[in-house]
Amino acid sequence: MEVQVMRCFVAVADGATVTRAAADAHMTQPALSRALRRLEHEAGAELFQQVGRVLRLTPAGRAFKEHADATLDHLDRGLRAVHETVSPESGLIPLAFLHSLGTWLLPPLITGFRERFPLSRFELRQGSEAVLVETLLDGTADLLLTAGNPGHPLITWRRLLVEPLWLAVPPGHRLAQRRRARLAEVAEEPFILLRHEQGLRSVTESLCRAAGFTPRAGFEGDEVATLRGLVSAGLGVALVPRPHASAPASAPSYLQVTDVEAARDIGIAWLTSRTLPPNPARFLAHVREQAEAVADLEHAPGEES
């Protein structure tokens, strides 16, 4: 079986037309159609069936695709390992990261690394914790910067730092002029929360329970920036990290929480069974050495938040 034909099979199985897959592979459409028929002959079963104007996988095709995906993934990793052995300084670093870390922690870490290894290349993906864990498991990412231990048996996670969480209240709120507050003081107010699949949601609920109440959801969002914006609009309060940039006059007030230890762990994760290629391994070491110093600089006194 030819590797190029396998790649075309996967592309068509993922929804591409034969014409599109052939063009991407620099083949003619009839040539690819013949190659796919040869592939079916070698597999000993029909892999596609015509449904209207598109091709759909047969049960045999679905079974074959699962192994084709794994085979191509192993091949691509092997080719990448060869490339990085020959030219380790220019290796690729597939990195996934939590939305809120892309505004302050990740940029200086990448900048510092590229000062040492200027030819290194990054392939970045951002998203929620649940989505990002899948990027590790399916091999899309080698490393994951996230909040909290994913708790997955196949993943190794190491804490990098502890990030404080602050009680965000709207401008004009009865607590807005204070610098500190007990979380219990807002027990009766609506909370602006992340959705249940987000790690900060469970941290917030745990801290509220420790303060003696269950938070009442006023709105559920997908990003920390959304939570801050809705607090500014007066829709409720939230437990969030302080922003790492100058805030507009209409921004929430951020109060230090005194009755519970309001913070979340920030860490880095990778697949336990996977030997990292040279450049991702170097970046992992760099992050573990530098993350706390970056956080200390970001939280230095006098910086506006």
What does this protein look like?
The chain is α/β, with parallel strands linked by helices and 305 residues long. The protein has 3 domains: 3-85, Orthogonal Bundle (Arc Repressor Mutant, subunit A), CATH 1.10.10; 87-162 and 265-298, D-Maltodextrin-Binding Protein, domain 2, CATH 3.40.190.10; 166-261, Periplasmic binding protein-like II (D-Maltodextrin-Binding Protein, domain 2), CATH 3.40.190. It is built from 9 helices and 13 strands. It has helices at residues 3-13, 18-24, 29-43, 59-86, 106-116, 129-137, 199-210, 224-232, 278-298, and strands at 48-51, 54-57, 92-98, 121-127, 143-147, 155-164, 166-169, 180-181, 190-194, 216-221, 238-240, 253-257, 263-271. The protein has a 5-stranded mixed β-sheet, sandwiched between helices. A 4-stranded mixed β-sheet has the order 8-12-7-11, with helices on one face. A two-stranded antiparallel sheet has the order 1-2.
